[in-house]
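User: These chains co-purify. Model them together.
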Amino acid sequence: MAPKAEPAAEDLLRFITCGSVDDGKSTLIGRLLYDSKSVFDDQLAELGSAGGAIDFASLVDGLSAEREQGITIDVAYRYFATPKRKFIVADTPGHEQYTRNMVTGASTADLAVLLVDARKGVLTQTRRHSLLAKLVGIRRFVLAVTKMDLVDYDQAAFDAAVDDYRTFAGEAGIGEWLPIPVSGLNGDNVAERSQAMPWYKGPSLIEHLETVPLAGDADAGRPLRLPVQSVVRPNQDFRGFAGLVAAGTVRPGDPVRVLPSGRASTVRRILLGEAELAQAVAGQSVTLTLADDVDCARGDVIAAAGNPPQAADQFEADLVWMAETELVPGRGYWLKLGTRTVNATVHAPKYAVNVNTQEHLAAKTLGLNDIGVVEVTTDDPIVFEPYTESRALGGFILIDKLTNATVAAGMIHFALRRAQNIHWQHVDVSREVHAAQKGQRPAVVWLTGLSGAGKSTIANLVEKKLVARRRHTFLLDGDNVRHGLNKDLGFTEADRIENIRRVGEVAKLMSDAGLIVITAFISPFRAERDMVRSMMAEGEFIEVFVDVPLAVAEARDTKGLYAKARAGDLANFTGIDSPYEPPESPDIHIDAVTMSPEAAADAIVERLLAQA
Amino acid sequence: MTGLSYLDRLEAESIHILRETVAETKRPVMLYSIGKDSAVMLHLAKKAFAPAPLPFPLLHVDTSWKFKAMYALRDKVAAEPGIRLIVHKNKEAEAKGINPFDHGALHTDLWKTEGLRQALEAGQYDAAFGGARRDEEKSRAKERVVSVRSKSHRWDPRAQRPELWSLFNFRLGAGESVRVFPLSNWTELDVWRYILRESIEVVPLYFAADRSVVERDGLILMVDDERFRLGEGEQVETRRVRFRTLGCYPLTGAVESGAADLGAIIAEMERSRDSERQGRAIDKEGGAHAMERKKLEGYF
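Assistant: Joint model of the two components:
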C-alpha cells in the first residue's frame, strides 16, 4: 500500500463547552467523540451500557474522585478529528469553581458551545457562561439547544430558547452566535442533520465547527510580535532568538525593533530546526538571527519596526482570582506575561463585577472566583498590548511568591497614562556620583525579628559604629516612622504591607543618595521583605534576622506589649495573633539569645565593611 | 489562511513548551522510553534548540525486559553527536531478580515507578519531560502540561495549577519538581502522521512482520529471547503481527496486522476500533482506575 499523505486541509479548532451535566454536556461530547470515531471498542466495552444504549456521558468523565461525587471538578481536554479539522475540546464543569475552570478552558479557545436544555431554556447560568467566555476573548458562539428528543423535537421549544438568547446577546454585545437544535442521545444534528427536525435548515454541529473561521488566521495579518523565549548561542558565530511568533509574518530583510529597549535591526535568517525558512507566520516556533549585535534577551519582544507595541509599568486590567487565599493589595506577586516575569503589586480593586448582572460592586479585595477591575504596577516596564488585540501580549498570570500557586489571570485593558507620561526624571548627578562623593557603597541593612528581639538596640549600635568609622548612615526605626510618615496606618495585614512598602521606598531613595540605611522593623511577612530586596540593586539589601524564640521575647516584654496582646487589648500582634515568617536564608543570622547586642552589631558592621 | 496545518500548530506548541521549560528550570531531563512518542519528543527537542545541541540529557529507566529491537535503537540514538543518554536500572530490583513472570505488578512498581524516582533523585532533576498524551487514557485528560510533583513524587489532582493561555508556572518549593508533557495535545494518529511527515526513525516492531508469538490471557506476546517462559500447553507460533505500544516484552501485546509501512499503519489506525493501550497488561493491574492510582504514586 502506498503511503498516504497527510490531508492538506486539516487545521485546528479549539473550543470550549459550557453547561452542566444536567444540560446533557457530557452526553453531547461523548456523542461528538463517538460519531467522529474517536472512541474505541475496548473503551466502549468497559462502559456499563444500560439496556444496550451506550452511556455517552461516562466516556468523558475522568478521575475516579469525581466519578464518585458525580460531578466534574476540573477542565478536561478531549480530541477528535474529521477529514476537515482536528478539534481540541476544553470540557469545563458548570458547578462550583466554574469561573476558574471556565476562564482556564476558554483562554485558548476560538469558540464556545453553550448548552441549553430545551425543556428549561436560557438560564442565568447560560448568561454567566456567555459573559465569562466573552471576557476571555471568545467572539464566536454556538447555542446548542439540547435534549430535543425530550420535547418531541418541537420547534416552539427551540424558538423560545433562541428568542430569549437573542435578547440577551443584543444587550451583552455578543455578535456572532448560531443556534442549533440537537439530541446528544440520538445524535440529531450532531454529525448528521436530523431527520426528526425537518424545520431546521442550518448545519449540524460538526458541519458548523468544520467551517467556522479560525481566530488564529487573523493574527498573521497583524504587525510582527515575537516574545523571545531564549537566546540560542551554540558558538561565537551564531546568536539566535527563539520564540513563537505571536502575531504577524516575518521574512529575512524585515526591519525590526527589540522592545523595550527600542534598538533597531534587520532580520537576517529564520530557522525552524536546521531548516532555513523564507518566512514565518503567527503560530510558528522559530529562531531568528539579526543583522546587528543588539542586546536582546528572554522577556524582550522582537516587533515590526514601523509598528512596535508599547511598554509600561502601570496598567488597568480585568483580574480573575483563582485561589482560596484572597488578593492582598500592595503585596508583591510574580506577574508572567509572554516570556517576561516581573515583580508586581495589585492595588485595591476599583470594583468587582457581578458576573450574572454585570453590576459593579465595591470591593476591598478579590476572593476565589471573583472578577474585578484593578490597577497593577510592575517593577520594570513590560511590553504589552491590550488583551482585546492580543491574547499573547495582553494576558498574564499572577503567582504567589510563597506558595508558588497560580492565583490569578489578568487581561490588560490599557496602560495608565501616568506611567506612560511620567518618565523617570533624568538626573545628571547619578547614584554612583552620590556614593562616590561619600566614598562608600550604599546599602540597606534590614533587621527583622519579633518585637522585643533587640532590633532597635542592635540597629543603634550598628549606626554608632559606622559613624565612628566616618560612614554616612541613617537609621529608620519602626516606632519613629509610625509616628510620622506612616501615622495613618494601623496594624491590619494590608496596613503592615503598606508600612513596609513605604519604608522600602524611603530606604531606596536614601541609598540612591549614597547612604547606608539601617532599618529596624518587625516586617513579619517574607513577601514584603522580598519586595524590598527586589527594589534595591543586587547585593545592596542585607537581611539580618534577629532571632529569638517567642518565649524569650515575651519574657523580656520591654514595652509591655505582649502582656497587652495576651490580654486581648492589642489585636494583630506579631507572634500572638498575627504570624511571623522567619527568613529562609538571611544574609546575616543573629542568635539574639546567646549573642550580646554589642557582638551582634560588630558582626553586622564587619560583614558590611568586608563587602564594601 | 496562514497555511499552517494542524501538525504545524502542534509542533510549534510542543517546541514552545520545551523552550519554556529549559528557560525556567535548573536541571531538566527528558524521559526516553524508546517508543514512538519518545521518538517524536526527541525530534521536537532537536528542532527546538538547533543549531545548539540538546540542553539536557535523556534518561532511560531500564527494566532489563525491553524488546531487543528497542535496545538497538536506544544505543543508536545514544551514539548520535550531541546526545547524552543516562540509563538507570533499579539495583534492588536487579539484585532480587524481579521479573514480569514471577512478580506481576511488583515488576512495574519496582523497575519503573521506583526506578524512575531513584533516577530523578540521583540526578537532582527539577523538570522531567515525558511523552504522555492526554488522549491515551481517561485519567490523563485532566493532566496539566506542566504538572507539579511533591518531594515524594506524588501527584495531587486536586491541587493542580490552572494553566491559562500558554503561560506555564514553573515556580517550585524545596524538593518539588515538575513533569512536563510537550505532547499533551497530540493523539496517536497525530504522532504517526508526524513520524511520516518528518521521516522519524522508530523501532521496527511497530511494523507488521512474521514474529514468534504465544497467545496468553487474550494477549499476543512475543517470544523475544530465551527468558520467555512457556506455560503448560502453550505453543510458540509464527504470526504476522505488529505493536501499537512498546514496553516490557512479556507485558506488551501485539496486534495481528499486515501494516508494514507508515502509510499502512495510518490507514489501519483510521479504521481501528481499539485503543492503543488495549494491549498493555500494566493498565489492567489493579482494576478500572489502575492508571490513576499509578499516577498518584509517581508513575509517568
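DSSP finds 19 helices and 29 strands in chain A.
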